[in-house]
Design brief:
Strand content: 25-35%
Structural class: alpha+beta
Largest sheet: 5 strands, mixed, barrel
Order of helices and strands: HEHEEEEEEEHEEEEE
Helix content: 10-25%
Number of strands: 13
CATH architecture of the largest domain: Beta Barrel
Distance between the termini: 81 Å
Length: 224
């Protein structure tokens, strides 16, 4: 191997090493995020650091201006009163709203606001778990907190309230198991058996409430 060939080999090797170092720096800097609590994030110890924080959206704290969504989150499982302000330049999912769990990833600026580059939202598990299906009265009490969000609700079918699919009216009326004066009209396009929608049948519905106050069921199951 002559001197010129050795010189070329050294140069090529150096270029490869530099390129790999740059790639690792870019990938590592963009993806590494330290998971911290809301209290830690609000302490001021993580300014200009990339972190991931999870909490519930403070009621009516969110607004959008110049396509920037701003809101605050708190920790429902902590006795601390710490609140963290979030700014997110992106579109929020349909599940976003009061008391929804928000997982925010980004950097904390000098003002203590987490400028999020990623935002993932999900309904609290109490709205989704089959073991914790809401009663009709509970669902109504939650109001806008569960509006247009997927939940499970349980109750009994009001006698004589059934209508055929596609009738343009409610499919049946679901009555609260503990208070028969509390009820909700149910819309459903599914083909249901006569056993499923029999008078006084105990059922568990999966679906969501809409602005009219009716419940749109995507699944109807007999409560076992």
């Amino acid at each position: 191997m002559n001197a010129r060939t050795k010189q070329r080999l050294v140069i090529v090797t150096g270029v490869i090493v530099i390129a790999m170092a740059l790639i690792l720096a870019i990938v590592g800097g963009g993806s590494a995020a330290k998971t911290v609590s809301i209290a830690q994030a609000a302490s001021g110890d993580y300014v200009n650091q990339r972190v991931q924080v999870s909490g519930n959206v403070v009621e009516n704290s969110y607004s959008t201006k110049d396509n920037i969504l701003t809101f605050s989150i708190y920790d429902p499982d902590s006795a601390a009163d710490a609140i963290l302000n979030i700014a997110y330049d992106g579109g929020a999912a349909a599940t976003f709203g009061n008391d929804v769990t928000a997982i925010c990833t980004g950097k904390i600026d000098e003002s203590g606001t987490l400028v999020a580059s990623e935002l993932v939202t999900k309904c609290p598990s109490k709205y989704e778990s089959g073991m914790d299906a809401l009663g009709v009265g509970q669902m109504i009490d939650y109001g806008e907190k569960v509006l247009n969000k997927t939940v499970k609700v349980t109750g009994t079918i009001q006698p004589g309230s059934q209508n055929p699919a596609g009738s343009g009216d409610h499919r049946f009326v679901l009555v609260d198991a503990e208070d028969s004066t509390i009820m909700v009209e149910v819309l459903c396009d599914e083909a249901l058996s006569s056993e499923t929608i029999a008078d006084n049948a105990k059922v568990v519905l999966t679906g969501n409430t809409i602005d009219s106050g009716k419940f749109v069921a995507t699944n109807v199951a007999i409560e076992g």
